[in-house]
Structure formats: structure tokens, C-alpha cells
Write a structure and sequence with these properties.
The chain is an alpha+beta fold and about 475 residues long. Helix content is about 30%, strand content about 20%. The strands form four sheets. Strands 1, 2, 5, 6, 7, 8, 17 and 18 form an eight-stranded mixed β-sheet that branches.
């Protein structure tokens, strides 16, 4: 291919792939830059949750729904904090996105759509995902993407890191500079540049700069380094959304000293009903552990120092309760005494010492919990799911932390996804979509089901199909 492209796309994931597919199908000469050795981006980490109203999937299930109802429902869940213009654009085009994916072979799980699961439910069944989660979406988009590469309509460069944007004297973006797998620097020129390069939750320095008020523990794509966000900032682009963050409940650090080593725990009552109880660093219970609203639990954890809580249980619970980690009972047991976040003691006082809590406080919290179990009444928090009291040593605590799979802040754009400067003007020829916009743009200060992945794919489609322009562009 000539080194003079119609469209240059940074990233080959949930936004970059559909943008490349639709632009190439319209006749564009497309250059796709991907830092990883494979396509797919964060789809390997994604739960693959999508939501859309008025889809063929809903029609087949006899569900009456509309984009307006979806928008109102999403605004209810996020407390009115998503970007209204981007939210409407994403939701009004979401059904076309999901219908396109199902046409490519994407298969939702049996019984889908549903109202909700991992987060606050919708009022209507418009929520779905596939058996392989995000990989189900990737597998649907891969054949047309690879065919366009084989037809020399997309020039894909893997293991190539985007380093900066190029401009002419007028300030218009004219291309990109990249670092090749061999370490050399190359420049490529194009009429449109799309930043579809993901977020920054794998970049400690950038997190501290943009989101300093929130402690970072992340489980995310290691290539979520914020390269696109940083490059846009260097051209005067504004970034917002850093104050709209809600931690995910909850996980632990596989390496206690590494914020980027987050791993999941099953603390969502919709997925696993808790047998244990939770305390803060003082040894006090602070939340109803089986609260039907995961949003309620997440906000309680958000208020804790460093989002840190301790999951308390004893030997009979360890032996009989559903396993709380994403591993076998034996694998979890082997962590105690061998991992800084998995604590074990012969007495509650000994456990409190490891937590750093007052022994009397932890003993009182345990006694109150046990009384609630025996009486089937929890006056402090109203918990309902209580299986057995805690009293048989050894006693255990898992140091759990609220973590993230996304980054809240991102590049500001207009209704055509053009990157904006502080004065509100658009940087010519530069566009952004996906997590480069920040999670908060489409979910605000909450988790709105499907409003991360679906908008990412939708905006990629819209860019490639309708928004980007070049000489002799097909309709």
C-alpha cells in the first residue's frame, strides 16, 4: 500500500476493528496500528456485555422496547451523569450494531436478552453477551476484518506503538509517528486519524496525573497505556471525566506491591451469595454484604480508605462455602500464609493483629454477626442471607480491594467524534472513540450495562460508515 492513507486507525480492538471494516468497505485506504501482537484489544479482558433497544433479538423474544426508553433507563442508572449527546448517539444506533454482529455470527447466550446481572438491572430485557464473553464479539468481527487485510484494503501493523501525531502549519493532523517492532521510527500520512487506542488503567503515572483522588488496582489490557490520550493532549485536546469513578467490587492484588496485578473475587451477591461478613480496616462491618444493589456495595467500598475491606470467615466456611476466588478450593487454601492478602490465625485477636485492627472491635463485629445468624435478624444492616456463625478456628481474612478494568477520564469530542481543544474548537482530521473517550462519557459515575462495549463498537461503525470523509469516498 501507498504511505498516503485515507484513514489511519490507532488500535485494532472493539472500536478500531469496526472502524477499519466500514471505512475499507467504503473504499478507504486504511492503515491500522496495533501495539499488541494480536488484534482484539481489551476484548480479551471484556465481559462482552452489550445493550440495545429495538433489536431483532428483542423482537424474537416478543419484547417491546425503544431507544428512548433505553436512554431514560440508562440515565436513571447513572444518576443523569453520562454525556447526553454521546449517550443518545450511542443508544440510538445500538440496535444496528447488535443486529450487525448477530448477522456476522455472534450468538448471545440462551435466554438472552436479560434485564441485568453484574450491575444494576435495566427495567427491560435489552442486555446480552456471548458464551466466550468479549471473545465472542471478537470472533464475529475477525473474518470480515481479516478478509479486508487479505484483499490489501487494510494495512495492519502489529507490535507497532503509536508515539505522536503529526500536524501541518494550520494545526490540522496529517499523520502519525510510530515505533516499529525493530525499534525504528516511521511516519505515515493520512486524511483522517482515529484514536481507538483504549484507556490508561495500565499506566501508573498517567492514572496518578488524571485520576489522583482514586487508588488504582487494575485488571486490564497491559496495552491500556493512554498513548492516544497523551498524544491528543500534546495537541491541546481536553480530557475530562476523572472525577466520575466507581470502583468494582472487588478483587485482590496477585502481587501485593503491584497495582496492575488485580484479580477478581466473587463478592457480587448476584453471582455468589456471601456466607462471610466484611469489615473495614478498623474491624467494623460497614455494609450489608448481600445487598440486592451492587451499586450500593460499590459505593460503600468507594468510601473506604484505599477501597480496602477484609472478608472474614472461619474453617467450616472455608470448607463449605462456594469458593470466593476464581480458582479451586485447594488453590485458594494454599494462598493463606503464603500471600500478603490472605491472612490466617488461630484466634480472632491474632487475625485482628494481621489486619491492623483493634482485637476487641473485630471480636464484637463477629459476635454481632453471629447473633444475627442465630436470630435470623440483622438489625445493623438488614442482611438476609446468613448460613452459619463464625467460631471455629483457624480464622481467615482476605484483604480485598475495589479495582477497575477501565479508566474513567478521556478525550473530549463533539457529536461527530472530532477531538476538541479547550476553546471548544475541533482539531482538524482527528477523531476519537472507545475507551479513549473515558468510561464516564457513556456511563457517568455508575456502571450502566453494556454502555462501554456497545458504544465502542457503535462509534467505530459510525466513523467508518458515515463520519470520516476522503476523496472518492463511497456512500
Amino acid at each position: 500500500m501507498s504511505d498516503n492513507y485515507d484513514v489511519i486507525i490507532i488500535g485494532a480492538g472493539s472500536t478500531g476493528m469496526p472502524a477499519g471494516i466500514f471505512a475499507a468497505e467504503r473504499g478507504a485506504r486504511v492503515l491500522q496500528i496495533e501495539a499488541d501482537k494480536r488484534i482484539g484489544g481489551t476484548l480479551y479482558w471484556s465481559s462482552g456485555q452489550m445493550s440495545a433497544a429495538g433489536t431483532r433479538l428483542q423482537e424474537a423474544a416478543g419484547i417491546d422496547d425503544s431507544a428512548e426508553e433505553h436512554y431514560e433507563d440508562a440515565m436513571r442508572i447513572c444518576n443523569g451523569t453520562m454525556d447526553p449527546a454521546l449517550g443518545r448517539m450511542a443508544i440510538e444506533n445500538a440496535s444496528d450494531t447488535l443486529d450487525w454482529l448477530t448477522g456476522l455470527g455472534f450468538e448471545p447466550l440462551p435466554g438472552h436478552p436479560v434485564a441485568g446481572s453484574a450491575h444494576e438491572p435495566y427495567r427491560t430485557r435489552r442486555y446480552c453477551w456471548g458464551e466466550k464473553l468479549g471473545v465472542s464479539v471478537l470472533e464475529a468481527m475477525t473474518p470480515p476484518f481479516e478478509q479486508l487485510i487479505a484483499d490489501s484494503r487494510i494495512d495492519l501493523r502489529l507490535e507497532t506503538r503509536f508515539t505522536r501525531l503529526l500536524q501541518d502549519d494550520s494545526g490540522a493532523v496529517t499523520g502519525v509517528e510510530v515505533e516499529t517492532p525493530s525499534g525504528s521510527t516511521e511516519r505515515h500520512y493520512g486524511r483522517n486519524v482515529v484514536l481507538a487506542s483504549g484507556g490508561y488503567a495500565a499506566n501508573l503515572e498517567m492514572w496518578a496525573e488524571i485520576t489522583p483522588q482514586f487508588t488504582l488496582t487494575s485488571y486490564c489490557n497491559p496495552y491500556s497505556r493512554g498513548d492516544g490520550i497523551r498524544a491528543a493532549q500534546e495537541l491541546g485536546a481536553t480530557v475530562s471525566g476523572g472525577d466520575s469513578f466507581l470502583t468494582t467490587v472487588a478483587g485482590f492484588r496477585q502481587d501485593a506491591d503491584d497495582p496492575l496485578s488485580g484479580a477478581h473475587l466473587r463478592l457480587n451477591p448476584a453471582i455468589r451469595k456471601p456466607w462471610e461478613f466484611y469489615v473495614n480496616g478498623e474491624g467494623e462491618r460497614f455494609v450489608r454484604e448481600d445487598h440486592p444493589s451492587i451499586d450500593h456495595i460499590e459505593r460503600a467500598v468507594l468510601a473506604l480508605p484505599d477501597f480496602t475491606l477484609y472478608v472474614i470467615f472461619d474453617e467450616p466456611m472455608r470448607q463449605n462455602a462456594p469458593v470466593i476466588t476464581l480458582e479451586t478450593r485447594e488453590e485458594m487454601a494454599a494462598r493463606f500464609g503464603n500471600h500478603a492478602h490472605f491472612l490466617k490465625a488461630d484466634s480472632l485477636a491474632g487475625l485482628a493483629a494481621q489486619i491492623g485492627a483493634d482485637p476487641e472491635t473485630l471480636e464484637q463485629s463477629t459476635a454481632q454477626f453471629n447473633q444475627a445468624v442465630e436470630s435470623r435478624h440483622d438489625p445493623a444492616f438488614g442482611r438476609e442471607h446468613m448460613i452459619r456463625p463464625i467460631g471455629t478456628p483457624p480464622f481467615y481474612a482476605i484483604k480485598a480491594v475495589g479495582f477497575t478494568v477501565i479508566s474513567p477520564a478521556g478525550i473530549d469530542v463533539d457529536a461527530d467524534l472530532r477531538v476538541l481543544r479547550e476553546d471548544g474548537s475541533a482539531i482538524p482530521n482527528l477523531y476519537a472513540a472507545g475507551e479513549a473517550l473515558g468510561f464516564a462519557k457513556l456511563s457517568g459515575n455508575a456502571f450502566v450495562g453494556g454502555m462501554s462495549l456497545t458504544p465502542a463498537i457503535t462509534f467505530g461503525r459510525l466513523l467508518g460508515r458515515d463520519i470520516l470523509s476522503w476523496e472518492n469516498a463511497g456512500s
